[in-house]
TrEMBL record:
SUPFAM superfamilies: C-terminal effector domain of the bipartite response regulators
Name under which the protein is recorded: Helix-turn-helix transcriptional regulator
Residue ranges annotated for the HTH luxR-type domain, each copy included: 53-118
Entry annotated with the keyword Cell membrane: no
Keywords linked to the UniProt accession: DNA-binding, Transcription, Transcription regulation
SMART domains in the record: HTH_LUXR
Length: 122
């Protein structure tokens, strides 16, 4: 077998576009699609019920929702972390992801969205 860099790359990834193919302007060649990907709908570009398909508070994961609920009650990140037995960094990560999913930029906006979705507990 020949051992050049291009030959190794082609053996490793036969569907990869070559420089000549890129220059021709044609779309990329078909890649091998396994049955596993086809049965999950991934080969056709469809996704499952990921967060992008859902909107609003329904897009949040369970962990993000638990963190957001405590923050909406007025707890600081450290207090939320202690209440949920998490690190403050994990709480911050969950908050950043929740804010991105909800399209908000502040804790106040986040609290408004959560309270609009579910009224405060008595």
């Amino acid at each position: 077998m020949r051992g050049g860099r291009r030959a190794r790359r082609e053996r490793r990834d036969p569907g990869r576009r070559t420089p000549e193919h890129r220059a021709s302007g044609h779309s990329s060649p078909e890649r091998h699609t396994s049955k596993r990907h086809t049965s999950r709908g991934l080969a056709s570009g469809r996704r499952g019920s990921g967060w992008a398909a859902r909107r609003g508070v329904a897009a949040l994961t369970g962990a993000e929702l638990r963190v957001v609920r405590l923050v909406a009650q007025g707890l600081a990140n450290r207090e939320t972390a202690a209440a949920l037995f998490l690190s403050p960094h994990t709480v911050d990560t969950h908050l950043r992801h929740a804010c991105a999913k909800l399209g908000v930029n502040s804790r106040v906006e986040l609290t408004r969205q959560v309270l609009a979705h579910e009224p405060p507990a008595p």
